[in-house]
Amino acid sequence: MDYFHAFWTGGLICALVQILLDRTKLMPGRVMVILVCTGSLLSALGIYRHFTDFAGAGASVPLLGFGQVLWEGMKKAIDQDGFMGLFTGGFQACAVGVSAALIFSYLASLIFRPRMKE
């Protein structure tokens, strides 16, 4: 049942984002920022943790989950380091994921020879 909840929840998030992209004049970059900020806001309100407990990867993999990671890291760093944690916590929390994305993207570019579209 965990897989089912993850699948339909992630699919619902993606479908809502696609509708937002199709029905508005928002650019994809702005929609991505909205998703990250929404994930952070829902985490600050204490709502998103219950959502990820229910849906697992279906809620934590989309960009909403990235906002949650930033918020949780920032909250933890503020508790440990005080005011400076406001600036360092998000970076520390997401460093591994961002680094992995950069490294694997670079390796994929070596294997598949990317080129510009004409």
How many domains in all? Answer: 1
Uncertain ranges: none
Alpha-beta content class: mainly alpha
Number of helices: 6
Q: What's the helical proportion of residues?
A: over 70%
Average pLDDT rating: 87
How many angstroms separate the termini? Answer: 45 Å
Instruction: Using the alpha-carbon principal axes, give the shape.
Output: globular
Order of helices and strands: HHHHHH
Features:
83% helix; 118 residues; single chain; mainly alpha
Give a quick precis of the structure:
This protein is mainly alpha-helical. The chain has helices at 2-23, 28-44, 48-55, 57-60, 63-81, 85-112.
Describe the structure in your own words.
- With 118 residues, this protein is mostly helical.
- The protein has one domain (2-112).
- It is 83% helix and 0% strand.
- The chain has 6 helices and no strands.
- The chain has helices at 2-23, 28-44, 48-55, 57-60, 63-81, 85-112.
- Helix 2 crosses helix 5 and helix 5 (63-81) packs across helix 6.
- The longest helix is centred in the last third of the chain and has 28 residues, at 85-112.
- The radius of gyration is 17 Å and the shape is globular.
- The mean pLDDT is 87.
Secondary structure layout:
Elements: H1 2-23, H2 28-44, H3 48-55, H4 57-60, H5 63-81, H6 85-112
